[in-house]
Amino acid sequence: MSDSSHAARSITFQAISELRSEGYHTARVAGRSRLFDLIAWKGVEILFVVVRRTRSESITGYSDVVQDLSGCVQEKSVPGTVQFWLYRSNSWFRYLILPGGALPVKGRTA
Predict the structure, then answer these.
(1) Domains of the chain from N-terminus onward
(2) Which tens digit of pLDDT belongs to each residue from 41-93?
(3) List of residues 6+ apart from 73 with CB closer than 8 A
(4) What is the DSSP secondary-structure string of 30-53?
(5) Closest CA to 11 of 43, 37, 30
(6) How far apart are CA 107 and CA 84, in angstroms?
(7) DSSP 79
(8) CA distance 84 to 48
(9) In Å, how far are 4, 10, 23, 45 from 96, measured between CA atoms?
(10) For residues 98, 100, 58 and 54, what is the CA-based torsion angle, rounded to 10 degrees?
(11) Residue 16 CA from chain centroid, whole number
């Protein structure tokens, strides 16, 4: 997440809260060149999460990000699951990143 605005940080903390409510431990990743915003783990399950907030765009507006993440999955350079979370209209839209793109994994949650 290259945007370091208050809104961007706020949505990251909302994602942390969501993950913690599901029993995950979380760590926020800092730095402008980071690929992921959060790392979450529960037992042996590890999630690498990218979080974005939008007013109107769907995941298609983030095709460059999805393509970069898909490359990581294809190269097996991350030891866990990669997810892209989009916050729009007071709802989370979660996508599992696969070698060929993104697959919705969870419907609307708020």
Answers:
(1) 6-109 (3.40.1350.10)
(2) 999 999 999 999 988 888 989 999 999 999 999 999 999 999 999 999 888 99
(3) 82, 97, 98, 99
(4) -STT-S-SEEEEETTEEEEEEEEE
(5) 37
(6) 13
(7) S
(8) 9
(9) 24, 22, 19, 14
(10) 60
(11) 11
